[in-house]
Design brief:
Elements: E1 7-11, H1 15-27, E2 31-35, H2 38-47, E3 52-56, H3 64-74, E4 79-83, H4 88-96, E5 101-104, H5 109-122, E6 137-139, E7 142-145, E8 150-153, E9 156-157, H6 162-173, E10 179-180, H7 181-189, H8 198-213, E11 221-224, E12 228-231
Parallel strand pairs: 1-2, 1-3, 3-4, 4-5
Antiparallel strand pairs: 6-7, 7-8, 8-9, 10-12, 11-12
Helix pairs in contact: 2-3, 6-7, 6-8
Amino acid sequence: MTTSPARILVVDDEESILQFVSYNLRKEGYEVTVAADGDRALELAAEAEFDLVVLDIMLPGADGYEVCRRLRAQGDTPVLFLSARDTELDKVVGLEIGGDDYLAKPFGVRELLARVKALLRRSAVRVPENHRDDTPIEAAGMVVDEAAHVARFGNTDIDLTPREFELLACLMRNANRVLSREQLLKDAWGWQYVVETKTVDTHIKRLRDKLTAAGVDPAVVETVRGYGYRLAT
């Protein structure tokens, strides 16, 4: 029996983020509807049922908090807040008015998809079969568990920032393949990958330092001159 994919409403007034989020959710097999303001989001929610709402806070018309309050008055559709405001108070307010999770901008593709998948599972909504699974990645003696956000070499944890973690995960998923700086930016920086490509070089240097501290030979991250990087196994 065929099961319909989860229906997700994405609400954001920044066109670049709206396109980035909707593209990646559709790529995962979800059915996506978009809105660029709070009033339109409420209209769409009144016209159809959604399994999840990905909701920016700063919106024209009704803001994200107001949209969430009104959605909560109608039902219990999970709400994932997106916001450039990353203070503890903002998170508390968002969760107290009925939000289910809070993702601060900037965010990467993997983190977005993991949050969406977790919320849909929590609400017992079917996740598409082509969705990436949570199996830890293993390469070059390292293990990256994206679900737990943990990286290890043997019994030693590798202390990484979120961006370094995303870079390592991307390199390990594509072990022995050369990845351009643009590819790494898109995967690890997500919608904010308009930053300069030299940013990748800076973060790769820091990643190598962290690998060295954990006992990993930093040479496993090879520089491919004029193009990008490769994780050699």
